[in-house]
Amino acid sequence: MQTVSLSFFRYDSLLNRLWALAMMGAARLSMPRVAGIGFWKLCGSGTGEGFMPLPNTAVYAILATWPDEATARRQTAQARIFQRYRRRAVENWTVFLTPTSARGVWSGVAPFTVTETPTPGPLAALTRATVKPSVALKFWRRVPDISQMIGSDTNVAFKIGIGEVPLFHQVTFSIWPDTDSMAAFAREDGPHARAVRAVREGNWFREELYARFRVLGDAGSWQGGSPLTRLDRPA
After folding, report:
1. CATH second-level architecture of 3-219?
2. Which one of 7, 146, 155, 211 is CB 3.0 to 4.6 Å from 94, fit for a cystine?
3. What's the CA angle centered on 126, arms 183 and 196, to 5 degrees?
4. What is d(CA 225, CA 18) in angstroms, rounded to the nearest whole number?
């Protein structure tokens, strides 16, 4: 059962932020040497709810695929490159997932292998796109309204915008208590639905990937605790 890890690291001092920024290039030498790792990406994050194009120099992320959950947990805890990221971070959190649906590609590759069927309960959603330069300004004009909308949704347990290259490569990741709450957000005739229609009608993306996951568990903390505990709270 393929397991996906998504690890987040928060840095406070200017020196550590500059280190993390430099690792966006330097860590590329170490990641392929991690035993058991498959597809991987190093990402920065955006400001605000995480979906704004201005980079947040405090938060960085590593996405990776593994052959199983045991390998994912062991390597994200013990592999030297992950330990280096954690040592300098003031806070870190990793969520473990298994794909239940996936379509599209990321850097020309279909990274997620679906072996599980959707089940009731918490799920995570990831969208990744390469925005065409000619429509980047149109795309990002819509983002503040979407960011405010998802930020005010009491159902969402965790949300963040990350990416490899600011403005043109964007990833949205969110965790929801169930399919109905996520679908209700997507269907609502607001900024998100209008943006989706504009993307489809204008063919704004050069490359797209949409995936959903079953949430397996987590390690570490974010903003003082596990975001997964919010899944048990009433909306």
Report:
1. 2-Layer Sandwich (3.30)
2. 7
3. 55
4. 26
